[in-house]
Amino acid sequence: MESQIIRPGHLTAHQTARVLGISLDGVRQLVRRGRLQRSGGTPRQPWYTVDDVTALVVERRTRNAA
How many CB atoms lie within 10 A of CB 17? Predict the structure, then answer.
């Protein structure tokens, strides 16, 4: 279940997965590999900054366009 109250400029794990077009496990893998950092929330419901997620989206689009 997604958190109902989240700080502005942050996304839940579910929202992050949707934006990146990956599964929740994919988000966990990005964190484990150091490509994405948690910036709040709880261990079970982490938040990620919009800026970090946007940077990953841009990186993925650039890589796929090449």
Answer: 19
